[in-house]
Design brief:
heterodimer; A: 261 residues; mainly beta; Porin; 8-stranded antiparallel beta barrel; two-stranded antiparallel ribbon; 2 helices; 69% strand; B: 264 residues; alpha+beta; 6 helices
């Protein structure tokens, strides 16, 4: 968590450096004096944290996990068009692609030095979510010295895909103690949601933004493949495909940089 | 183009912000049954993976019994070991099947008969030792070496003996000579503390000093105790490293005959 806070701080720090120095890294663009309140195209790139709840759960002799809320991290890219509606209001249409994931791995190693090269247990999980969103937002441009602060509200729709894998084994080379769990769940999802945030626009055409989104996600088709073994014997082997039609609400946070042209 | 720098920065920031995930190693305590099972597994895998290496080592060391190899009849060697008086070793005979060596030093002189069967069984013993869990070894057939870490009765016992050893095995000579190319540290613990006078850093090495006429050794041969190896355990760290003290051999007077065994 601290790492993420530091990285986000770094992200903001660099963004502010652009603003303070009039675009330290953007001499080419510093030469331009532009009207930020003219309609323009936008390209952007962002980092994003999204809440999700992987469904895998199991309880075995040496390991137990429950379906629990996780933060997926990633980013996205997009393009849009901003129209100014008078001096203060504007509206923006954007299409974006995004990719977020949560990845963890844990190995259990014998404390006995002479066999420390052996991995007694491995737990690995990789949860991926990706998709696209089409959004429409409305904002208010507030002119401040050197930049425009632009609070905005946004609605959007989209498509997404979940790909969630969890693998685990415990193997001490004693057959009666062996246990394993392997599961893969894929889902198709539909999105709708609302978001709010603010943009900071500077003369060079650069912008940075923060937004919070409430995602209402409807899970459509879900494919599940799960196998559990204990004592070397498969005790559960589940494979199915279902139409779920289940709706869940999840929040996400996006921080990005963009360029208006 | 400064825009390029920006894009790279953005990508880097995005990459680092992006979750690369977490990776952790956790130590777990296992019981002795589990430890033994894992040791067996690792050793079996090593033996399978390195089968060619050990096969080549066995072939090469067996072939080294042929005449004209590095070890030749009449070679005299000086054996030195840390804190122990010198021994001498004379090769009385080496042929395609056996090598006879005369050893003298602080204890009763001995003649050892070392056969290619002994050699092969010792390579098999090296396989087990080198592949034993916790041991490491090089994979160069010309200069094979391995390290051993050994605890008796086990690592957690307050009263234990800890032995760390390094063995060098040359493929161009019988494994017998590898006995004289090793180092080890032997540390005795009592109540969890090192017993200083039982801490030994030992180096065993041999060096050829001269060629001698074996005819000068007939009387000494007849007076010496004659020994054969009974198993491969003498390569173990538990075996006494000093050749004259080796107990894992069978010894008796007049077991060998100067005329039929040496001069034949």
């Amino acid at each position: 968590m601290m790492k993420k806070i530091l990285l986000l701080s770094l992200f903001f720090r660099i963004s502010l450096t652009f603003a303070e120095d009039g675009g330290l890294l953007f001499d080419d663009f510093d030469q331009r004096t532009r009207d930020l309140k003219a309609s323009s195209w936008i390209v952007f790139i962002n980092s994003e944290v999204m809440q999700f709840k992987p469904l895998q759960s199991f309880s075995l002799e040496n390991k137990e996990i429950k379906a629990r809320e996780k933060n997926y991290n990633g980013g996205g890219v997009g393009i849009g068009r901003k129209w100014w509606l008078g001096s203060y209001f504007n509206t923006t249409t954007e299409i974006a692609l995004f990719f977020v994931q949560n990845r963890n791995e844990e190995n259990k190693i014998p404390s006995e030095d002479t066999i420390s090269t052996y991995v007694v247990s491995n737990f690995k999980e990789l949860h991926i979510h990706y998709g696209s969103r089409l959004s429409q937002s409305i904002g208010i441009g507030i002119e401040l010295p050197g930049f425009i602060l632009e609070p905005f509200a946004q609605i959007y729709i989209g498509l997404g895909f979940n790909d969630s894998k969890v693998g685990y084994y415990w193997d001490t080379q004693i057959a009666s103690e062996y246990e394993s769990y392997n599961s893969k769940i894929t889902e198709n999802t539909l999105y709708q949601g609302v978001g709010a945030g603010f943009n900071i626009l500077i003369d060079s055409g650069l912008m940075t933004y923060v937004k919070v989104m409430k995602n209402t996600i409807t899970v459509g088709k879900r494919k599940t493949s799960t196998q559990i073994s204990t004592s070397g014997t498969v005790v559960e082997d589940l494979s199915n495909s279902q139409n779920i039609n289940e709706t869940i609400d999840k929040y996400s946070l996006g921080i990005g940089l963009g360029y208006l042209f | 183009m400064k825009i390029g720098v920006l894009i790279v920065q953005l990508l880097l920031i995005n990459f680092f912000t992006f979750s690369c995930g977490s990776y952790t190693d956790v130590k777990v305590d296992l019981n002795q049954t589990q430890i033994d099972a894992i040791k067996n597994k690792l050793a079996a895998k090593c033996l399978t993976d390195k089968a060619t290496l050990f096969s080549d080592l066995k072939t090469a060391t067996t072939n080294s019994f042929d005449s004209g190899k590095i070890i030749a009849t009449g070679n005299k060697y000086k054996i030195t070991q840390t804190d122990v008086s010198e021994q001498t070793l004379v090769v009385l005979k080496i042929d395609t099947a056996n090598i006879y060596v005369y050893v003298t030093g602080s204890l009763t002189p001995r003649v050892y008969k070392y056969s290619i069967a002994n050699n092969q069984s010792h390579v098999d013993a090296i396989k087990i030792l080198a592949c034993g869990a916790g041991n490491t070894f090089t994979e160069d057939i010309n200069s094979f070496s391995y390290d051993i870490l050994n605890y008796e009765p086990d690592k957690t016992d307050d009263d234990r003996t800890e032995q760390k050893g390094h063995f060098d095995i040359k493929s161009d000579r019988p494994v017998f000579f590898s006995l004289f190319s090793r180092t080890y540290l032997r540390t005795v613990y009592l109540n969890g503390k090192v017993v200083e006078d039982e801490k030994q850093d030992i180096k065993v090495s041999y060096e050829k000093t001269e060629n001698v006429s074996i005819d000068d050794y007939e009387d000494r041969f007849n007076l010496a105790t004659h020994c054969t190896f009974i198993n491969a355990n003498w390569l173990d760290l538990d075996a006494n490293s000093y050749l004259a003290d080796i107990t894992k051999v069978t010894c008796s007077a007049n077991a060998f005959n100067w005329t039929s065994d040496i001069k034949n």
